[in-house]
Design brief:
Blueprint lengths: L8 E2 L3 E9 L4 E7 L5 E8 L7 H11 L8 E7 L2 E7 L5 H7 L6 H20 L2 E2 L8 E3 L8 E3 L6 E2 L26 H4 L6 H17 L12 H14 L2 H4 L5 H12 L8 H14 L9 H15 L24 H8 L29 H32 L11 H11 L31
Antiparallel strand pairs: 1-2, 2-3, 3-4, 4-6, 5-6, 7-10, 8-9
């Protein structure tokens, strides 16, 4: 039973709003801070749930608190016969954005994401946890000034791989049930071997290939039972070498997969080495660290088309449903696909479900909810600020050099690459600007509320 519209207050501080998502654990609502009017996400789980996990997830978030890209838990407790978790409101998931971009990301976008994804996983591992469900749905972009930041969510399946007191690694075990999402699960997970850090990284490798190719070879496998399907997926993964999986991609993806697959159960991965693989490729390709992702360009194109030709039909918006302006927080895959109406790129396989063949026309901004329009405007404003800053820096350089704009010296490709590599030192795991804006101002989190402190 939905609690929407009942005027429920959470911890005497937050007002429960519209329902924006659901899953096996419970439901997610849009919330609002009564004092500051700030929007938050409210995750609710019945106290009579067969397998309650929200309190455990809240404790994991507490352990991870303070990490870059880890949502801040503002309150945890019980209200209206539900376990309630109030946390930062985030933007669309990687899967949402992937569909929005016609199920294919450019190499530049994949490499920008790879650096942040590796840093998120490394941070979680540094706190003694493995995630065990690495997939695009569990990585969400931030909003407003943190719009360029990748956030990691859904720690209901997370597990300690190291004892916090003795610092001993958990023992090697076999005959374990499959935990996580079969599409991205490691081969060892399919084989029933206890998961460790290597398995999170193997899953991340499959995500990167998925983003580059639009699909994975084991998608769309049909079987009579789940067990039979999982066995077929495992067989396909086992016979698909890294070279075959990454055919047509840069060698760095092959090196990455071969490295993580070669790790022993309790080995500590060399995260810096893996990040450097992709950073070096980024520089060699001549890309710029401007944080202009594929979806940024696509949104700009849609906005321009809407302004120049209001009657021209455009591709469906990222959030086609005004009832779910923040459905990227956490939505079941079928509901998300139905809302988005996005079609895969030509020739791309679907994820085992038939996607709708009718695109929803998006003509003007009136079709979007106010919240969604604001978020798209934030992305646009952020990009424009970045461009103005770059232009201002260029003008200052010319003025200091006594050159007219037409006389500005042209940099060679090698000089540009060297300058980019200096801007992104390999030994700094969290050196992305994370959409703080030209002033460098970072949003301050509010003081943790009373009640049960998390």
């Amino acid at each position: 039973m939905s609690l929407e519209g009942q005027g429920i207050r959470i911890g005497n501080k937050y007002k429960l709003g519209k329902k924006i998502g659901a899953g096996s654990f419970g439901e997610i609502y849009l919330g609002n801070n009564i004092m500051t009017c700030e929007d938050v996400a409210v995750k609710m789980e019945s106290i009579r749930a067969a397998h309650p996990q929200l309190e455990y997830e809240a404790r994991v978030y507490k352990t991870l608190a303070g990490g870059v890209g880890i949502p801040f838990v503002r309150w945890y407790g019980k209200e209206a016969e539900h376990n309630v978790l109030v946390m930062d409101l985030l933007g669309p998931s990687m899967e949402d954005l992937f569909n929005f971009c016609k199920r294919r990301f450019s190499l530049k976008t994949v490499l920008l994401l790879a650096d942040q994804l590796l840093s998120r996983v490394e941070y979680v591992h540094s706190k003694g946890f493995i995630h065990r469900d690495i997939k695009p749905d569990n990585f969400l972009m931030g909003i407003a000034k943190r719009g360029n930041q990748v956030n990691m969510i859904d720690f209901g399946l997370a597990k300690r791989f190291r004892d916090p007191k003795s610092n001993q690694h958990i023992p090697y075990r076999e005959n374990k049930n499959l935990t996580g999402t079969p599409r991205y699960a490691s081969v060892n997970t399919h084989l029933g071997i206890e998961q460790s850090r290597r398995d999170d990284l193997e899953s991340l490798g499959y995500i990167l290939v998925y983003f580059c190719r639009g699909q994975l070879p084991w998608q769309g496998i049909r079987a009579r039972t789940k067990k039979e399907k999982y066995d077929k997926i495992m067989e396909k993964k086992m016979i698909t070498s890294a070279d075959a999986l990454c055919r047509g991609l840069h060698q760095e993806f092959v090196i990455y997969l071969n490295y993580v697959r070669s790790l022993r159960f309790d080995d500590k991965p060399d995260y810096s080495y893996l990040r450097k693989l992709f950073r070096d490729l980024f520089v060699r390709e001549g890309f710029q660290y401007d944080y202009v992702f594929d979806w940024t360009i696509r949104k700009m194109h849609e906005k321009k088309m809407a302004e120049t030709s209001p009657t021209a039909p455009l591709d469906p918006p990222l959030y086609a449903s005004p009832m779910a302006p923040y459905d990227g927080v956490a939505l079941p895959s079928q509901q998300r696909r139905a809302m988005m109406g996005a079609l895969p790129a030509s020739g791309a396989a679907t994820s085992g479900h038939h996607r709708t063949q009718q695109q929803q026309q998006y003509r003007t901004d009136t079709n979007k909810s106010p919240e969604t329009s604001k978020r798209l405007d934030d992305v646009m404003m952020q990009y424009q600020q970045q461009q103005r800053l770059l232009q201002h820096q260029h003008q200052n350089y010319n003025a200091a050099s006594g050159l007219q704009p037409s006389q500005a010296p042209q940099q060679s490709q090698s000089q540009q690459q060297q300058q980019q590599s200096q801007q992104m030192p390999a030994d700094s795991p969290y050196n992305f600007p994370y959409a703080t804006g030209p002033s460098g101002r970072i949003l301050m989190r509010e003081t943790q509320p009373g009640g049960k402190s998390f």
